Write a sequence for this structure.
């Protein structure tokens, strides 16, 4: 392939079937564990899919691509920075839409930005707007949960060499009490 006119970066896309639930802590923990179990962080899925002719059993209706965190440079001498003006189309309008809804997210300068793409021939703006507002509500609930002192900090994949499951980790927490999360310290009450 001739990539000489390619601008941007390459990413690894692979399907993940997310579970649901009403308990934010359990949903977060289960999702974290499932994503961490994906072999090689999804690297190789594209090879399997395109070179072998294998196709996933079902086509996803929603694509969520999180681009990560980036600091916007305000230095005019910096050769790499986000453009301020119009960027033009990211893709041809004649191309096939692979998903009914595509969500592209990133954090820049500490702010989460989500871009929702959809076909106005399938969904109306009010439907997508309602879905996006509900998404923000649920995200707020998850953030509120994570900010509570009693929120679980660890899951079994945080201890890959210990071969723990949720039940064993819960038993350890019951036996030894609360364990502080990364970057926190606890006072055991004893002198040092």
């Amino acid at each position: 392939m001739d990539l000489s006119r390619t601008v941007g970066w390459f990413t690894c896309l692979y399907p993940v079937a997310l579970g649901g639930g009403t308990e934010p802590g359990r949903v977060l923990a289960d999702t974290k564990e499932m994503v961490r179990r994906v072999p090689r962080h999804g690297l190789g899925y594209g090879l399997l899919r395109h070179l072998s002719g294998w196709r996933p059993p079902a086509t996803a209706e929603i694509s969520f691509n999180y681009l990560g965190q980036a600091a916007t440079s305000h230095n005019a001498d910096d050769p790499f920075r986000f453009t301020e003006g119009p960027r033009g189309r990211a893709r041809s309008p004649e191309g096939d839409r692979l998903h009914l809804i595509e969500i592209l997210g990133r954090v820049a300068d500490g702010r989460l930005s989500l871009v929702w793409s959809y076909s106005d021939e399938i969904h109306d703006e009010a439907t997508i707007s309602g879905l996006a507002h509900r998404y923000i509500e649920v995200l707020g609930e998850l953030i509120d949960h994570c900010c509570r002192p009693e929120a679980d900090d660890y899951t079994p994949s945080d201890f890959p060499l210990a071969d723990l499951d949720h039940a064993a980790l819960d038993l350890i927490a019951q036996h030894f009490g609360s364990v502080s999360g990364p970057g926190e310290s606890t006072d055991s009450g004893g002198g040092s």
About this structure: Confidence is low (pLDDT under 50) at residues 182-192.
